[in-house]
Amino acid sequence: MENRNYRIVFLRVVLSILTLTLIFRLFYIQVIKGDFYSQKAVEQKIRSFKILERRGEIYDRNMIPFTDREYKEYIFAIPKMLTDKEKAAKVISEIAAVNCEDVLKSLKSAKDYVEYEVKFNSNNKLPIGIFKLALPQRYSQNSLARHVIGYVGEKKMGLEDTFNEILNSKREDSIAVFTDGNNTDYIKGLGVRLKTSGKEVLGVKTTLDYHIQKAVEDALDKNMVDGAAVVLDIKTGDILAMASRPNFDQNNIQAYLNSSNEEFINKAVSMYPPGSIFKIVIAAAALEYNKVNLQDTFYCSGSYDINGIVFHDYKGESHGVINMVKGFAVSCNTTFIKIGQITGAKNILEMARKFGIESDDGLPIPEQIGRLPKLSDTYGAGIGNLSIGQGDVLMTPLQAADIAATIANNGVRNVPRLVTAIVDEEGKEIEKLSQKKSYRVISEKTAKILKGMMREVVIDQEGTGKRAETTYGSAGKTGSAEVSKELNIYHAWFTGFVPFDKPKYAISIFVKNGDTGGTKAAPLFKEIAEEIMKY
């Protein structure tokens, strides 16, 4: 009898434990994990169609985006949710301005959904199975820095290409449609919703300043320039603006594939003969190596013969007896060829390389590094071409701005950079990108003299850069690189800095086949400098 009672008690205890376990399990499933399992149940009855693959954005230094700035509205239709396809086709045809028969054909196809760009807004209620969505556009009609940002598609260019793996997040936006229990038909009454995958989207933070970039591009477009402009932060080496013209449409790359107008060429990092802006390097070498002092004088007759090769000043103008400062201000070729002969080609080439010509600075976009002649090519008349920035001497507008920035920064070169970090969508830096170390190019004393000489170019009554003067005080050097003497064609240059007393921005202007530097490039420098100083 006792054993029987024991068995009954044991069974009751076991049943009680099982009941409590079952109650707890039900409580856990329905209360604690209720939302989770409800979501899973719903997801089993949802079918998704990918409509957009999210790509990381490219930002300026203040996290203002250059990409995905504009949205376009699209109309979507899910054929299996439509009860009256003829009516739906008519609605879509009116909104999207497309042929009604073509729409109806698409709606009767086996497509999961059809998509059209909205052309006309309608206040009428859309039938179940049709809805509108605003989707981001990678590039807009007013997008900036196109030669830097580049484009993505079958082919890639610029930062879009360099950082493609980082920007290509594979985050997807999808249309979610509810299905029946057998997952074979859509439940029309529940409509649709948007789903976004949880993958992280990373972007690229550049050194560019959106507002300065816009000011530069507006000036180039206003003056119909074929060329380039670069703005550098003197204290950091950051590239604040880089623009090239002619421009191109990032949404219509095919239109330029057979063009000969150089739309895809980023002239800001392409090399061209610098002409007289190279006299900055000649003067720096002459002063730094103590080959010429400011009291030395030279006689300019308007031309100079070296071994039967005659070099002329602009329009054969004679400047008489002048020193290096005056020769720099009026851009006297005769004087600077003589200074080049005294200084020596070896010293000049060494100085040019210290300024960064022929150096790969590791920018994340294709960049030409400039070119200098071999020492053997500078013998005889070769020193004449070297001294006035002609012949085998080639530089980029970025390098021209870099030279001006180095002088304005008291002789210390901050190696230009274009990208600072990989960031998340909140702007948090995920990875900082290193910058090459700064280094001294010339002494502070030499830099001070050169700054004064560049100021004279702008304020001297006979100075070639008078049109570059601003209300803030400018300094710089003009250049007119001879392209065709017979046709009187020159590349126009101006490189300098502003303000003169407390330099902040270095700006270089290059106008291809644009007449003289003082006529075309200097006024453009002034226009850009005046505008960006407002910031």
Number of domains: 2
Q: Could you name the CATH class of the largest domain?
A: Alpha Beta
Counted beta strands: 21
Q: How far is it from the N-terminal to the C-terminal residue, by CA?
A: 100 Å
What is the radius of gyration computed over CA atoms, rounded to a whole number of angstroms? 34 Å
Strand content: 15-25%
Provide the CATH superfamily of the largest domain.
DD-peptidase/beta-lactamase superfamily
- What share of residues is helical? 25-40%
Overall 3D shape = elongated
Mean pLDDT score = 89
Instruction: Characterize the main sheet.
Output: 5 strands, antiparallel
Topology record:
Layout: H1 2-32, H2 34-43, E1 46-54, E2 58-59, E3 70-77, H3 85-96, H4 100-107, E4 114-117, E5 130-137, H5 146-149, H6 158-162, H7 164-167, E6 171-178, E7 192-196, E8 203-206, H8 210-222, E9 227-233, E10 239-245, H9 279-288, E11 297-300, E12 303-306, E13 309-312, E14 320-323, H10 324-329, H11 333-343, H12 345-354, H13 382-387, H14 397-408, E15 412-413, E16 419-423, E17 429-432, E18 439-440, H15 444-459, E19 475-484, E20 489-498, E21 505-511, H16 517-532
Parallel strand pairs: 2-8
Antiparallel strand pairs: 1-6, 3-4, 3-5, 6-7, 8-16, 9-10, 9-21, 11-14, 12-13, 15-18, 16-17, 19-20, 20-21
Helix pairs in contact: 3-4, 8-16, 9-11, 9-12
Note the main attributes of this structure.
alpha+beta; Penicillin-binding protein 2a (Domain 2); Beta-lactamase; 2 domains; five-stranded antiparallel beta sheet; four-stranded mixed beta sheet
Could you explain the architecture of this structure?
33% of the residues lie in helices and 22% in strands. With 535 residues, it is of the alpha+beta class. The chain folds into two domains: 45-200, Penicillin-binding protein 2a (Domain 2) (Alpha-Beta Complex); 210-533, DD-peptidase/beta-lactamase superfamily (Beta-lactamase), CATH 3.40.710. The radius of gyration is 34 Å and the shape is elongated. The N and C termini lie far apart (100 Å). Residues 39-45 and 180-187 have low confidence and may be disordered. This is Cell division protein FtsI/penicillin-binding protein 2.
